[in-house]
Structure formats: structure tokens, C-alpha cells
Amino acid sequence: MTAESALLDAALRAARDTHCLRVSNGARIEAAGVFASLFGGRTAAIIADENTFAAAGADVYDSLRAAGQPCLEPLILGPGIHAEMPLVERVEAYLEPAGAIGVAVGSGTINDLTKLASGRRQRPYLTVATAASMDGYTSFGASILHQGSKQTFPCPAPLGVVADLDVIQNAPEGMNASGYADLLAKCPAGADWIVADACGEEPINAAVWDTVQSRLRAWIADPAAVRRREPEALRRLVTGLMMTGFAMQAACSSRPASGADHQFSHLWDMQHHTYRGAAPSHGFKVGIGSLASLALYEAILDRGLDGLDIDAAVSRWPNAAENDHEIDALFPQAELAATARKESGAKYIDKARLRSELTALKEGWPSLRARLSKHLLSRAEAAQMLAEAGAPTDSAEIGISRARLKRSYLQAYHIRRRYTVLDLARQTGLMAELLDSLYPEEARA
Ligand SMILES: [Zn+2]
Q1: Per-residue pLDDT tens over the stretch 30-60
Q2: Residue 360 alpha carbon to ligand 1 centre in Å
């Protein structure tokens, strides 16, 4: 057994919901065997869209029928579908008869729709992945548009996942690059957990950390091969994305996979950002968010915290009412301001707690600096890797101006209670200075 398969085995054992993962060339044909081993003679119910049905769904359907498995007529959604509540209800109604088991054949949207519909029916389901486009296949919870905003609804991850490398190799342009960017984001996300651990906000869980971080550099080492659709590079990418999902299942949290990098993306989702008529992919937004996060880390490491004036930082720290005023100024939309007040309020700390966290950071800075320097990619390295994979590296490529990006740091801090590099910059009182050093041309927000 290789080190990687041992790690994968351990991650599967620790995962809360998923019991089986099959990654291979031609795995779609094995889906019938996986289905029978997990669900016996229950009825299979394929959910796909026109493209994913053509790419894999038809073969899955044929192999299920050839194996004598009872099957509903497949539900083919689309075209141009979004992960939204009416479609969840449609999938739920489709799963109504006789305890049918959903077989999601697709990527993010199809998986999220089937995940929530199955969760609401309290039924397990199987996923057949058609692109290495994000890490959500094996994560718990589904991201669904509801009442005007993207919300994560708690629901179990699939009981089994089948990823066919032949299908993934032929995924539409940009999808695997998107997944590559989602995986690279685990580098700044890991740094956020290191800092949260160092200041006493959130201790690192070593087993979960290893699941994602111990092989991360190997998984993301060859972005050009991902772009060339080389099977071995795609296998590493799929493995990394699936492992990240297992880590989230084990942690019952997205902390192992998501830090400030994702907060930029969530912010732009909440602002309903579109570019050239469509929302940029999750991974492309997260890639730009990762570069923004890495740039801020670089600025902090350059400046250092040895000379941090803790008294000045504590005296500048806003009280709760001032924090709310800042949110109102940053978020003209009432709905967003309400979310920001709730999330930012949940992590608000008083001046005494701030002093104790800053003291821990300053005293521990030599070892924290060494740890971060060893862990982090530079912004330039990460940009090079994203470009080689075929992902955007300039925020303008996803329709975000530099001025908006600069302002997004201030907003992204407030929309989630998780401690990240944004909290580090804000709590030390250095955010404005650091952003001015990174974006000197752009006016201060
Ligand atoms: Zn992600």
C-alpha cells in the first residue's frame, strides 16, 4: 500500500458519511457494482443534465440495467440549471417512489441538488463525478440559492463516490482548472488555521490537518499537466479534492478547506457578482481569493510583528457599536449588512481578549513566522501555478477591479465568523497600512 492510499484509507475511515470511493479509468461502468454493494436491490434514480448524461449518465444507466438493478427513468435537468430550491424540490419529488436512491451524475450543481434532496428525504445517495471542478463532492452540506442568497444547508455527503478519469479528462474547458484552484486554496486556508491555532482561537486537529496538508504540495505540483489533461495529474487532483471533503466530514467543519481565500468568493456570491453574463466558477473566484490572501500574508511577513504596538492596537479596536457602524458603511445592501452584523458580531472580542491574543502572537512571532514561511507559497509562485493550470490570476479576469478587490478585504472580514489572515490584519490594527502597501494606486475604502 502506498503512503497515499494509506492516507486515503484512513481518511475514508474517519469520514462521517462516505464509505466508498472509486477513482479509475472507466469507473462509470463500475457504478452498478458500487451501487449494489452499498444499496443492494433498491431502486436507482439517476439525476443528470444533458451534458453529464451524455458524458457518463447513459453508461451508468445501461450498466445498472444490465446488472438487473431496478431503475427509474433518469431525470435529466437543464440546460443552464442553477443550484436553487425549486430544483431541489423537483429532485425530491423524483425520489419519492418506493425509497429510490439518487445517483447524481455531474459536478457541483447536480451533486448539491441531489445531496440536499436526498438529505431532506433522509436517504443516502451515490455520486458519479464528471469533472474535478471543486471539493464539494465529499463535503457535507449543499450550497443552494434560496431567498436571493447562496446558503449552505446541512445534509450528509454521499455514501459512495465514483470518479471516472476518462470522463474527467474530457470535462469542459476550465472545469478541472477550477478544481485545481480550489485545491491550491488549501495552502492559504492552512495558514489561516496555523494563525488561529497560534493566537488561541481554534486549535489544529492533527489528523484532519494531515489529511489535507501532508500531500497538498504533491497534489498541486504539476498544473501544466492538469491543463494538458494528463491522467496521472487528474488522478492526483481528484484525490486531493476528495480527501479535502473527507477532512471536512471528519472535522464537521469546512475549516480544513476554507479560509480567507473562500471568504472573497462567498462575498462576491452574496453580492450576486456576474461577469459577461454569468457567475465566474467557484474555483476561479477562490483562486483570486487565494492570491489576495497570500499577498496579505506576504505583507505581514515583510512587516513582522516584533515591533507590534499592542497598546495602540487595543486603543484603536472598535467597540461593538463602532463595529456595526463600520459594517453599515461597507454594506449598502440591508440584507448583506444583516448577515455581516451577525457573523462579525459572533467573533467580536473585547479589548482584554484582544490584548491577550496579540500578546500571544507577538511573543510567539519568531516561531509563527518560521512556520508560516515554511508553509506558504509566495503569491508569485501561486499565480504562476494557477496560470499554468488555466485559471485566472488577475481579478479583472473575473470582473473584479483592483479597487473593488481592495475593498473586498474589508468586507470579507465581516461576512464570516471564522478567524483568518483578515482577522490577523485587522486585530493588529495594520489592515489599512498593509492594503495601501499592496494596492497603492487604489483609494482607501
Ligand atoms: Zn471550495
Answers
A1: 999 999 999 999 999 999 999 999 999 999 9
A2: 30
Q: Residues 249-278: pLDDT tens digits?
A: 999 999 999 999 999 999 999 999 999 999
Task: Tell me the CA–centroid distance for residue 108 and ligand 1, in Å.
Answer: 10
Which residues lie across from 44 on neighbouring strands?
71, 101
Give dist(CA 409, CA 394) in Å, integer: 16
Nearest CA to 234 out of 23, 48, 385, 52 is that of 23
Q: Do 49 and 77 touch, CB atoms closer than 8 A?
A: yes
* Local structure of 6: helix, strand or coil: helix
Are the beta carbons of 192 and 350 closer than 8 angstroms? no
H-run or E-run covering 186 = helix 186-198
Q: How far is the CA of 135 from the centre of ligand 1 (A)?
A: 6
- Using CA of residue 405, residue 420, residue 380, residue 221, what is the dihedral sign? negative
Pick the CATH number of 3-172 from 3.30.565.10, 1.10.1040.10, 3.40.50.970, 3.40.50.1970: 3.40.50.1970
Tens-place pLDDT, residues 152-185: 899 999 999 999 999 999 999 999 999 999 999 9
